[in-house]
Amino acid sequence: MMSTAREHALNEIAFCETILAKGGLNVLSDTFRGVADIEAWEHYPPGDVFDPASNAQWFYHCHPASEGSAEHGHFHCFLRPDGPDGAIHHLVAIGVDAHGRLLRLFTVNQWVVGDDWADADKTIGLINRFDMQMPSPSYLVNRWLTAIFVAYESEIAALIRARDAALAAHIPPAGILAREDRGLEITSEFAITLLSGS
């Protein structure tokens, strides 16, 4: 049975997408509002988005287009428990297609984002603190991201545990830590199939 919080969050995700669609927009196009050329690897918006009340942070970026890939790019979501100048912890990445439709949630190895390492227990304790209530670059995109953290809280927690298990089992080349091994990028992922019409 679906929890009330999860059901409300799924409705919130659908609401944000519906309002954007009424204006001919989607999560991705609203994130890129005012951007003329989208470049691979660049952070959008420049300087990232940071909420000083919750210490949540995110940026979007895409990789060079690869044939057969449905994913356009992903939102990397972080938490800075001690404020803007403190340690930063990557929570999850949210992959979307070129129309802003949610495709997957995944975790990455530490070298990918260069965050401050925290084990699964500590990282999972930060999930429910991701609350992005900022007007830019899009209030609806920020609400959408926050709702994903509520709707998929248990899946994100499981991904973070799987991340640590993958790192513990990984055997890197001699002299390299598992968290620094560029041969291991994605440490866990979860395909999204629950949002009909997305």
Q: What do these coordinates show?
A:
- The protein is globular.
- The protein has helices spanning 4-22, 27-31, 110-113, 120-124, 139-151, 153-169, and strands spanning 44-51, 56-61, 71-79, 89-97, 102-108, 186-191.
- Strands 1-2-3-4-5-6 form a six-stranded antiparallel sheet.
- The chain is an alpha+beta fold.
Shape verdict: globular
Strand element count: 6
Q: What are the secondary-structure elements, in order, as H or E?
A: HHEEEEEHHHHE
Q: Describe the largest sheet.
A: 6 strands, antiparallel
Q: What fraction of the residues are assigned to beta strands by DSSP?
A: 15-25%
In what order do the strands lie side by side in the largest sheet? 1-2-3-4-5-6
What is the number of helical segments per DSSP (H or I, 4+ residues)? Answer: 6
Give the proportion of residues in helices: 25-40%
Name the poorly predicted regions: 194-198
Mean pLDDT: 92
What is Rg? 16 Å
The structure class reads alpha+beta
Q: Please give the alpha-carbon distance between the first and last residues.
A: 22 Å
